[in-house]
Amino acid sequence: MRDLKKEVFKVIFLNSQNQVIDIVTAHEGTVTMSNVYVREIINLANKFGAAAMIFAHNHPSGEPKPSSEDEGITEELVFAGRIMNIKVLDHVIIGEEKYFSFADEGLIKCYNTSFDMKK
Fold first, then answer.
1. Least confident range of 30-34, 39-43, 71-75, 99-103
2. Is there a contact between 81 and 42 (Cβ–Cβ < 8 Å)?
3. How, if at all, do strands 52-58 and 8-14 pair?
4. Is it the case that residue 21 has pLDDT exceeding 70?
5. Nearest one of 25, 75, 17, 76 to 49, comparing CA atoms
6. How many Cβ atoms are within 10 Å of 66's Cβ, its own excluded?
């Protein structure tokens, strides 16, 4: 994905044993953005009977640091997943020779904690 000229947002759907059910390109965007629609992602997860999801997208600029939009959509996806009982395990941004993992940075856990506090 690092060599793609446009942002591409992929979803890896997993079963309850974290085995891959399918990998879907949820959206192809422009060189600077990709619109992701939470409802469409959740609809696909239900269609596949997914128990968990991992998201991945590229930054054609090569810099994998998440934008505020990346952070916002990831939080929305974690919240929607919690409501639908579908785990979000990670969101990986792929850059040039490096990547950013929301799980590795503790953000997935943070979003889950934030969801629990809002209940």
1. 30-34
2. yes
3. antiparallel
4. yes
5. 17
6. 19
The pLDDT score that the predictor gives to residue 34 is 66
- All domains of the chain, ordered by start, with CATH? 8-118 (3.40.140.10)
- Residue 95 DSSP class: -
**Could you give the strand order of the β-sheet that contains 20-28, starting from the edge strand earlier in sequence?**
20-28, 8-14, 52-58, 87-94, 99-101
SS3 for 50?
Answer: coil
What pTM value is reported for the model?
0.92
SS3 state of residue 104 = coil
Per-residue confidence (pLDDT) for residue 12, from 0 to 100: 98
Question: 41: exposed, middle or buried (C-beta count within 10 Å: 0-12, 13-18, 19+)?
Answer: buried
3-class state of residue 112 by DSSP: helix
In the chain, the percentage of residues whose pLDDT exceeds 90 is 87
For 22, how many CA atoms within 13 A lie in the half-sphere containing its CB?
11
